[in-house]
Amino acid sequence: MTLKYKRVLLKLSGEALMGDKQFGIDHSRLTQYANDIKNAVENGVEIAIVIGGGNIYRGMEAEEGGMDRVQGDYMGMLATVINSMALQSVLEKLEVKTRLLSAIKMEQICEPFIRRRAVRHLEKGRVVIFGAGTGNPYFTTDTAASLRAIEIEADVILKGTRVDGIYTADPEKDKTATRYETISFEEVYQKGLTVMDLTAFTLCKENKVPIIVFDMNKSGNLAGILRGESIGTLVKV
Predict the structure, then answer these.
(1) Which pTM value belongs to this model?
(2) Distances in Å between the alpha carbon of 231 and those of 9, 75, 160, 195?
(3) Residue 204 domain flag
(4) Closest to 154 in 3D by CA, of 50, 37, 84
(5) Residue 134 belongs to domain spanning
(6) Which of 30, 41, 122, 190 could disulfide-link 46, Cβ–Cβ 3.0 to 4.6 Å?
């Protein structure tokens, strides 16, 4: 397979892991993701992954319920580690070598995040999963994905969602909404479109890291993007 991208940061939402469930992890969805990732690795792509934790716990919702925001955010970070461990387990059953690196020290279950170690794992063909966000409250997993992508010098951030790109409006609410194939960072700002939270998006813009928003739930989309096919929406500088 001729590759357009050699090293990528794949951002997966926790909510997408639920599949048709109301809570937790849908193992058939997780297995589909793992098979797509395995296919990419076998074709020589270096893959790092950040997963959200919204299928288990969201810190911002905890604050709305009266809980301390900082405490809620740390609980959310732990939820991302649970999702990361689940994906790691499924990948290793498929004989894909992985390493889970956490921004919060948990020696019994994962390595601490060290940038040089993460890059070395990627160079050796291992899938690197980054858990616990940035390790700091008030930052989302989108920001963690942007930060880690910059640190490992990824060619692109692939944001896998339940929709097939960025639209002029919410396609679930507005049937006349149309999808962008490509759009600039400036246009996203001007049109007020939601791609990532503003901190994450600005990090990508300032460091010239392109973002592709695509439907990860359709098997084969990841491979198509890596080959350079026009799938989803490309946000470029």
Answers:
(1) 0.94
(2) 16, 34, 11, 16
(3) no
(4) 50
(5) 7-28+41-152
(6) 122
Read off the CATH number of the domain in which 19 is found.
3.40.1160.10
Per-residue pLDDT of the chain (237 residues; tens, 9 = 90+): 689 999 999 999 998 888 888 889 999 999 999 999 999 999 999 999 999 999 998 766 766 778 898 999 999 999 999 999 999 999 999 999 999 999 999 999 999 999 999 999 999 999 999 999 999 999 999 999 999 999 999 999 999 998 899 999 888 788 899 999 999 999 999 999 989 999 999 999 999 999 999 999 999 999 999 999 999 999 998
Would residue 128 count as lying in a domain? yes
Quote the CA–CA distance of 132 and 77 in Å, as a whole number.
Answer: 4
Number of folded domains that form the chain: 1
- Beta strands at 127-131 and 211-215: parallel, antiparallel or unpaired: unpaired
The residue whose two tokens read 């070598």 is 97
